[in-house]
From TrEMBL:
The keyword Cytoplasm applies. InterPro entries: Aldolase_TIM, DapA, DapA-like, Schiff_base-form_aldolases_AS, Schiff_base-form_aldolases_CS. Catalyzes the condensation of (S)-aspartate-beta-semialdehyde [(S)-ASA] and pyruvate to 4-hydroxy-tetrahydrodipicolinate (HTPA). The gene is dapA. Keywords: Amino-acid biosynthesis, Cytoplasm, Diaminopimelate biosynthesis, Lyase, Lysine biosynthesis, Schiff base. It holds the Pfam family DHDPS. The lineage of its organism: Bacteria, Bacillati, Actinomycetota, Actinomycetes, Propionibacteriales. Pathway: Amino-acid biosynthesis; L-lysine biosynthesis via DAP pathway; (S)-tetrahydrodipicolinate from L-aspartate: step 3/4. It comes from Nocardioides renjunii. Belongs to the DapA family. Pyruvate binds at residues 50, 205. This is 4-hydroxy-tetrahydrodipicolinate synthase.
Length: 296
């Protein structure tokens, strides 16, 4: 990948499959990764929020990462989610990811304990100094209760391998400022992707691509070649899917896995608590949204 598009344009924050007893289904997880790459994704993000990382152990994270790396690592970028709300834990996960041999790490702001900007800089620099892997910072204040301020981003530019940002802050104009600093900015919100691209973003870390990979890839391709009308057409056609997957309270891993079940990639939609799998009515609404977008 080029330096200004370090991981490809379309990545998916992929789900993690589970067996009936709640253990990790490595074959199912590898099957998800292969499905995503076969449907237009340049890469996958493993053990992020959609992968239910708060519920998996360090040992499970290693097994999941190896399974995905073995499945698609020779044809797609693999990024390991290493963000937690404990710096030592994130350092451990980053070092583990480097040993597995993946292409980068995703580092979200610590959630719940709500550090200030000094604490954020300490957390991010501790992880950056623990690994030589390229780092994608992840700003999602709706989940972390903390916004990464521009001065913190500026301070992290001291590390050459802190190269990109997954931005789900909703502050789209900041993408232009982050781009000027040298970051490759990825939309962290499917429905906002065209806005991020307009402000200099390079791509998308998606959830909806579990079901709409080819369509989202074509939208990004149209934008890059300057056919903004076609990009908008594809985007508009996917609005029912965006709403069905991301516009409900119980979204993310739950809707991604239900979509994968509807598509026949998985034979179940199991999640780990505190998440609860979609009920039949919720699956019906998801099915209707995906069908309205032409995905079923």
């Amino acid at each position: 990948m080029s330096s200004n598009v370090p991981f490809g344009r379309l990545l998916t924050a992929m789900a993690t499959a589970f067996h009936q007893d709640g253990s990790v289904d490595l074959d199912g997880t590898a099957r998800i990764a292969a499905h995503l790459v076969d449907h237009g994704n340049d890469g996958v993000v493993v053990s992020g929020t959609t992968g239910e990382s708060p519920t998996t152990s360090v040992a499970e994270d290693a097994e999941i990462l190896r399974a995905v790396q073995d499945a698609v690592g020779d044809c797609a970028t693999v990024i390991a989610g290493v963000g937690t709300n404990a710096t030592a834990h994130s350092v451990e996960l980053a070092r583990q990811a480097e040993k597995v041999g993946v292409d980068g790490v995703l580092l979200v702001s610590p959630y719940y304990n709500k550090p200030g900007q000094v604490g954020l800089r300490h957390h991010f620099t501790s992880v950056a100094e623990a690994t030589d892997l390229p780092v994608m910072l992840y700003d999602v204040p709706g989940r972390t209760a903390t916004l990464i301020e521009l001065e913190t981003y500026e301070a992290l530019r001291a590390y050459d391998h802190v190269v990109s940002v997954k931005d789900a802050s909703g502050l789209l104009p900041r993408a232009a400022q982050l781009t000027e600093m040298g970051y490759a900015v990825y939309s962290g919100d499917d429905v906002a992707t065209l806005g991020y691209l307009a402000y200099g973003g390079v791509g998308l870390v998606s959830v909806v691509a579990h079901a709409a990979g080819h369509q989202l890839a074509s939208m990004l391709d149209a934008w890059v070649r300057g056919d903004h009308a076609e990009a908008l057409r594809v985007h508009t056609s996917l609005l029912p899917a965006f709403d069905a997957v991301m516009g409900v309270p119980n979204y993310g891993a739950t809707t991604a896995k239900a979509a994968l079940e509807l598509l026949g990639v998985l034979d179940n939609r199991r999640v780990r608590g505190p998440l609860v799998a979609l009920d039949d009515d919720e699956v019906g609404a998801l099915r209707a949204g995906l069908a309205a977008a032409g995905l079923l």
